[in-house]
Amino acid sequence: MLPAGHHLPRRSEAPPRQALRSRKIGANGKGAGEVTHSPDRYAVTGHPIGHSKSPFIHRWFAAVTGQGIRYDALACPREGFGAVVRRFRAAGGLGMNVTLPFKEEAFALADVRTPRAELAGAVNTLSFRGDGAVHGDNTDGVGLIRDLRDNQAVALAGGCILMVGAGGAARGVLPALLDERPRRLVVVNRSPERATELAARFTGASVEACGFGDLGDTAFDIVINATSGGLSGERAPPVPISALRPGGAAYDMVYAREPTAFLRWSRAAGASVAVDGAGMLVEQGAESFRLWRGVRPPTRQVIGALRAELDRGD
Q1: Cystine design at 71: which of 8, 58, 305, 311 (Cβ 3.0–4.6 Å)?
Q2: Domain enclosing residue 92, as ranges
Q3: What average pLDDT does range 290-296 have in this prediction?
Q4: Known catalytic residue: 24?
Q5: Which residues contact 194 (CB under 8 A, 6 or more apart)?
Q6: pLDDT for res 230
Q7: Considering only CA atoms, which of 79, 8, 42 is closest in space to residue 290?
Q8: Which residue of the set 24, 30, 53, 103 is catalytic?
């Protein structure tokens, strides 16, 4: 499902042609003919990484903002994350996105971390700056909020939110959700102990924790799935239908060509908004792009292009 007003590209649509910035130089360093400079280099790494849509997304970002960059997907063995980062940085790379299973390793590798990365305990964006330090940030929460609140027009302030799952995906977005000041936020997990452990990270915030059997008849305005359940034919998490109030919103942080098991569950539960995480992927990437380039790209057209790409099965 595309957010209202999103442009769905034609099947043949590709990113606008990217024009790299150039400057005139002469014998004295200025004045004569034009040269085209090598684009600044960025990348995404994870394991596996071949399925990543981040290069597709960042090519769009570069084109619509006129930024001269190159963005690649770098394969990384499970035990080789640090070596891959060091090689890329030594070759002149300026920044990296980090996906599963390396976000915690990226957190440990970063010399300087933002407060939101510290709260999340994970880093998905590395920046290599002139000060010699590796800077780490986490843009997952920003991506979720911008897609839910801005693209989907889901009101988060004052609402009751159920977060399904207590792993790294949930931990990465909880700080941003709490910043929106929901009336209630409950983390539910197959292992109630893990949910309690996650809730305890946010001292001073009213985060509750429970197992699925403890939900009872409580109805929530928003249910967010932060598990991978529902992909590859798996069942949706065992959330009772009554957990989503009629007309509420459901959001699956994973994305796929076909509706996930969780989205099928949410429609059966009467959700008025039921969307996957494709928009979140674009929005968190836009925040990374802003950190690196100083300009935030528009995202509506890119979300539409990504959805068309997924629909084609590319």
Answers
A1: 58
A2: 35-138+281-312
A3: 97
A4: no
A5: 166, 167
A6: 57
A7: 42
A8: 103
